[in-house]
């Protein structure tokens, strides 16, 4: 069931291919290119720090935003009506969307990691921890996108949220700058950055960040599951 | 066993609005049943409960003999639904949409069988020339036809249609009516604003007003519920004997304009005039189904 849904989602992007090419590849890679071109004036540690920030920013801006919009479309009453008699459950449709957009942002993440690997060296990378950090990042942001998209249930309203939310999350996190300002730890992205950076040897392991990220992932996943598995999806006050 | 059986269904929203009030509807085997009513009558609430998207406050819904509260899977296994809103999958071709629906419904279906079934349903709905069209290229009528194709290609026993021909041109409308009428489903439930559609397709009709059923029966039963005045305009071939003319009549040159309390009275008089004087021109404004329904709704509101 998942495979045709993913194929359908990918084919459904055909008319937006230029938009997607620019937003998912050209713009992020241009940013990465500029960081690398600036490497002569910076240490390898500095470049790796910025690129690790780039990985998380890519996920926040592309993955979180696009997935929220798509999920909000699925939760429109007329679309729910259509899917109510089609074979896949709404939770399966949403899972297919999560996997599709994870696949689409994966190249940016892998290219970013390759650059970090180049500057940091293999010895400094803790592979199991990196896999766990990336898994947490995908799950936390994906579940947050599903919970928000399902709650809004309208892609036009969702666009307002996805226009401002990633921007806030990125600006108030130490993705492209260094800061020890405590208020930044109220932002879940700060903790995800800390997890990824500790996995690639840019900072020591911060247990609190791992615990916070783990806890937030569980909370967002529970919220997402509750929204997608509810039996009576239009059962809310009008 | 009824194909669909809705018993004393009541739906009260959390804000206290009673959208459905003790509604009982049944769709028997091989029957097409219509629900008509004005906006806000509770048709959408009723359909959403049938689709398992809203929880009934009271009452029960059975599909193919199974209660949907106890067996929610019966909805996906037996019902095909055509929504009111003519949305499309903008970036998918018509044939691709049907292909995905079939692949989701029958994972192991062979490519040949899939092509065969898609080709049949597209041909039936006059979409065979549009199979390579993307969703965004489709007109409103084509989108509605595609939604019906999605429902038909699955070959499920029960069909639920929500205004299947709204926003559709008259030629496409008649084609869709033919397809629905000949679709050989075990039962069809149709919600519509279009009185002609209900009259053309339905064996029985339920009239829903303010969440309650105010009338039900065959379209003919509903017509007989209220006596509607009928107007007749005719030009006789010869002079009409005065005793045949009703009290209310006017004469404008050769043209007679007559008013009757019922269609039956009007037809009896026309027949008598035909026998005695012959008729050169005849125009009867008989009670339309639409007017009847408006009258019934008006009567109920009062």
Detailed description of the structure:
The complex is a heterodimer of chains A (238) and B (302). With 238 residues, chain A is an all-alpha fold. Chain A has one domain (2-229). Chain A is built from 9 helices and no strands. In chain A, α6 (127-152) packs antiparallel against α8 and α8 (188-199) crosses α9 (207-229). In chain B, the strands form 3 sheets. Chain B has a 6-stranded mixed β-sheet with strand order 6-7-8-3-9-10, with helices on both faces. A 4-stranded antiparallel β-sheet of chain B has the order 2-1-4-5. In chain B, strands 12-13-11-14 form a 4-stranded antiparallel β-sheet, covered by helices on one side. The model of chain B has no long low-confidence stretch (mean pLDDT 88). The A-B interface holds A 1, 4-5, 7-8, 11-16, 77-82, 84-88, 231-238 and B 13-15, 17, 47-48, 51-55, 72, 75-76, 79-81, 83-85, 87, 89-92, 96, 100-101, 103-105, 107, 134, 136, 147, 151, 156, 160, 162.
